[in-house]
Design goal:
The chain is of the alpha+beta class. The protein contains 5 helices and 26 strands. Strand 19 and strand 20 form a beta hairpin. The longest helix is centred in the C-terminal third of the chain and has 45 residues. The chain starts with a helix and ends with a helix.
């Protein structure tokens, strides 16, 4: 039934005049979000559908709505009455959860593509991040009222997290390979960690893919923070402390057998990592005696892995795909160096012409003198 609903809804889209038209797409999920209680799940795909599910007491589809443009990120409010969707044009749309069939309402906009969205735990602030290195903190009820900007990244901001237990802090990740800690209401940066500097030696894959941070997640109480970089087979773990100048402290680095696709902490503080492998798609890590250990033979891991097997084609489809962020890096154009090189080339060419001209002139003068000397001798 669910497959039939997906097939039918895939064929049509709602347009402004209230009609419908054919819509082609691959049903590829572009973004998803889980509510804080875990009772609601939302996802959006490349056919511009926004699907809302209820997880408890059983799974069921609540609604299928349509977005104006393909979305880049989703988030639920803490009260779970609102779903926010960001898109490539820089707009944020609000969708009601209480009225699941009501159309989306334009909430606010950036001048650049939005890549991540979050909310403060009290639902007071809406936090958005864009391609132009900006993190904007707006009042949720009146988004035109900007509380602050968190500025300091050198590339696009690709991940946001308000860590559990620290409602006034914000963690952000970027294409510049750094994780920053902010006091977001004031926009003050508390700390910046360069992930490349935390490695004993920069890995070839991290250098090749520029160590773009694509996921930040924290354990309950934010005792531990895990950071994932795109197409890099390691996960960096931190501990977060309220006291001291260094609040975000590097703890350890997990070396994985495959590149991670996603990760999250469960309520017990164990780290689950979904990997790019059909043989070993899932691993779980538990903190024991200040060290993260892999529970490879855990019955829970085996049970969830078995549940993944029917969806192995979905995991295989994600392999070898292009980077989500590669096209977002800003290319610097150094026309000064090019100008100086061309200028130096022109000067060298001019000097060479002058040298040739002097040489030719000297040869002509020597020839005239030779001819004049021969004429004097003959007259004598």
């Amino acid at each position: 039934m669910r497959r039939e609903m997906q097939r039918k809804s895939h064929r049509f889209k709602v347009i402004s005049d209230g009609g419908a038209s054919e819509e082609t797409g691959s049903d590829k999920a572009l973004a998803f979000a889980v509510s804080s209680s875990g009772k609601l799940v939302a996802l959006t795909d490349d056919s511009k559908r926004l699907v809302l599910f209820q997880c408890e007491p059983s799974w069921r589809c609540i609604s299928v709505r349509w977005v104006v443009r393909r979305c880049t990120a989703l988030t639920f409010s803490r009260a779970e009455d609102e779903l926010l969707a960001t898109d490539k044009s820089g707009d944020v749309y609000s969708f009601s959860v209480v009225e699941p069939h009501r159309e989306g309402e334009l909430k606010m906009g950036h001048l650049s593509m939005l890549l991540a969205v979050s909310m403060s735990p009290d639902d007071k602030y809406l936090i958005t991040a864009d391609r132009d290195e900006k993190i904007r903190v707006s009042h949720r009820r009146s988004p035109h009222n900007i509380q602050s900007f968190c500025l300091g990244h050198q590339q696009f901001v690709s991940a946001l997290l308000v860590p559990a237990g620290h409602p006034h802090w914000l963690l952000s990740g970027s294409g510049d390979g750094t994780v920053k800690l902010w006091e977001y209401e004031s926009g003050r940066m508390l700390q910046s960690c360069d992930l490349k500097e935390l490695q004993d030696a920069p890995s070839s894959e991290a250098v090749a893919h520029k160590a773009t941070v694509c996921r930040i997640t924290s354990s309950p109480g934010a005792r531990s923070v895990a950071v994932q970089c795109e197409r890099v087979s390691t996960v960096q773990l931190f501990t977060l402390h309220q006291e001291g100048e260094e609040k975000l402290l590097p703890h350890s680095r997990l070396s994985l057998p495959h590149c991670p696709l996603d990760m999250t902490f469960d309520p017990e503080g164990r780290l689950w990592v979904l990997m790019d492998s059909s043989d070993v798609p899932l691993q779980m890590y538990t903190l024991r005696r200040d060290s993260w250990e892999c529970d490879a033979g855990s019955p829970e891991v085996n049970r969830v892995t078995e549940a993944f097997k029917p969806h192995s084609e979905t995991l295989e489809a994600s392999r070898g795909t292009d980077s989500r962020f590669e096209h977002l890096f800003k290319v610097s154009f150094d026309n000064v160096t090019s100008y100086l090189q061309k200028k130096q080339q022109r000067l060298e060419e001019q000097q060479l012409k002058r040298a040739k001209a002097r040489k030719a002139s000297g040869s002509k003068k020597a020839k005239k003198e030779e001819v004049a000397g021969a004429g004097i001798q003959s007259s004598a």
